[in-house]
Amino acid sequence: MRIAMIASEARPFCKTGGLADVVYSLSKELTVMGEEVMIIMPFYQIVKDTIKTPVKFIDSFYVDMAWRHQEAKVYLTYADGITYYFIEHWYFDRSRIYGDGDDGERFAFFSLAAREFLARQKKVPDIIHIHDWQPGMVPCLIRECEGFKQKFSKTHFVMTIHNPAFQGMLDRDALGNLYNLPLSLYEDGQVRLDDRVSTLKAGIVYADKITTVSPNHHQELLTPEGGMHLDGVLNLREWDFCGILNGIDYLEFDPENDQFIAEKYNVDNMVEAKKKNHDALLKELNLKDYNRPLYSVVSRLTWQKGLDILFPAIEELAYRGCNIVVLGSGERQYELELERIRAKYPDKVAIYIGYNDALAHRIYAASDFFMMPSLFEPCGLGQMIAQRYGTLPIVRRTGGLKDSVINFDSSNEKTSNGFGFDNYTSDDMKYTSIYAYDTWFNVKLINQLKKNAMLTDNSWRRSAENYLGVYKELFNRK
Fold it and tell me: How many folded domains does the chain comprise?
């Protein structure tokens, strides 16, 4: 099949979050499985400044947005078997990808340009797979415009919701002013959400299949509590909606071949090697007690990640003599709180404000426990990476965390690969972390759990096979 991914970001060229990982890793795995995959994304300034693969100019055309008549240029490159098409315009010549007041206009141009580019090809895709709100209007732009509708009559659309908190909300006038679409689409409710235009809702309404990034998050989105105002339209599309758990890149996260860690290892020599990685990291971070468990956090420091209930647990663990390392950056109040805790326990708590990929790998390899008490987490990747390195996640059982972490109790020591709790409270986070600490003293048991974690299949092959099943179901409708 010929598959076109349309997304606002994708590795290896730019990344702000898990979206870029998913678009790239899924595409790469599909190409390994023999499918023809292209990724269409904006040609950001950051991509121009850092790209190392050869880039070739291949096309230019004009895009109309109401009174605007603006040129789009398209460039081509290849990476890991994937064909990348970059759409260039001054909208994307900025120092950051998101966060400007005209993001709605910028990604409207991107969506219109992506539609035009695909229509100019001799063979249109069998599947157009759009990701999140930024290209969410693409199926609508094709199906509500007669010329394009005919051109793409045999194409099917898949929409993946990565983060439902971002819904592409625009004033209703944007339909005509940005997308050249009639106001009737707002008035009849096709693209209306909370009395505004939502490009995310438009993607849900016009796609043939809707997916999200874990089975449990799929169920959460169908409820008023977890649906973020999308539950109504998602329930109407329930039979075309499913959850597919993300995977991780097993080449990037591979303790047996990881260039960043002190001692490479696999499941057979995991115990001894993790101890060497543990001691090396403690020495690097100037932590003193080598005979206590190491808890870690690698995360954006933001409210979604459960930091309000995490900090009391960190203080309690430090008081009990455990070592804690935190890597991340984000909201200032959380950075300051971490500094306060480190000042109180300087020999037990290490923090790194910012992001350091090599250090992140060393943390995963060295840690005994990885803490991820998210308020909500559509999928989560940190817990899967931790498992790959034999580090046991401690998670709040929400979204994909519930799907990927089997909570330990006395009846499942052969299958458990982490610890979990349900209620979003500091007490539950604290008690679960202490339970993990108590379990750590049972050496035979804790090593069994770590081996279970390493043997968990979090590969993209599993996920890609599920997506391919969705594509084939649509392809066979012809």
Answer: 2
